[in-house]
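Here we describe the complex-level prediction in full. Unlike the single-chain runs in Section 2.1, the two entities below were treated as one system.
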Amino acid sequence: MEQNQSHNELNNDQKLAEQLFSIESLSQFNENALETPHFYFENFNARVFHKMEQTNKSKFLSFAFPKWTSYAVAATLLFAIAATFIFTNNSLQNQTSTAEINIQEISNDEIETYVNENESLTEVDWQSELTKYSEHNESFNLNHDSIETNIE
Amino acid sequence: MASDSELIVQFQQKNNREQAFTQLMQKHQVKVYHQIKRMVLNHDDADDVAQIVWIKIWDKLDGFKMESEFSTWLFRIAYNETLNFIAKEKRKSTSSLDQDNGTYENHSSLTDAPKSTNIQIQLEQAIKQLPEKQRFVFMLRYFEELNYEKIASITGTTVGGAKANYHQAIKKLEEFIKGH
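The structure predicted for the assembly as a whole is:
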């Protein structure tokens, strides 16, 4: 009973369409729409499995190397370069300031002591020292004429 | 041949999954393809969508709880994937050449068919201008002869909604004929 009612309802609905278009044109539309290349369905499952493999591979790749990987690599490289630059720059600054600190750390007394101890070196009369030396060693005559004679 | 539920259990128990899935495909592939082809009207597009549908089925079949018929679930996925495809094509066509009227111009194989007559072309154009949901309901009702309960489950609407969609489609087809 219910099945009959359902069948009648379907018939009525189909008739509505058939009042607009002939049954032939509707069935022709359907036939054309359902045309498939020869043997299309025979290897359909093989193509689905093949596509599945390809999709899984690309899924694996996208999982292993997500889109943001390139950005992460670039950011890491940038960070490494920046860190190296900053570190190098800081260490140079540290060396300079260490030297400055070392000089500053020397007390005035120490400096004065050093200068006093080495005062003789700065005030040496080199001319008299050379004269003394030439007197002791006659062969060592460093006057202007002797030098010229030796050169000639 | 084993029933759908037997094959699904076999698949879910990981017992010859590929074999069980192949059998499910062989049972339903023609109807799925036809459902899609009537909507996209082009073989290559229908083939692409059909493959995507079966890959989705493979991915989701473990979670299928058999609360509804497998075929209803399968056709619903096919329905959603077809709508996704049409929406993508519409976006492509509106962003490229087809800006005249902003409608989806699919590459129909029907108008190129040697059997096509003026009436055929007019029918195809009339069906193509229907909104997707109405077109889908019209196809499922007229050609697949499905009852409204099943159509409602596939399209995610109520029985009343599905009936309304069919009658609105008829009305729009009539208006199209009067206008041409």
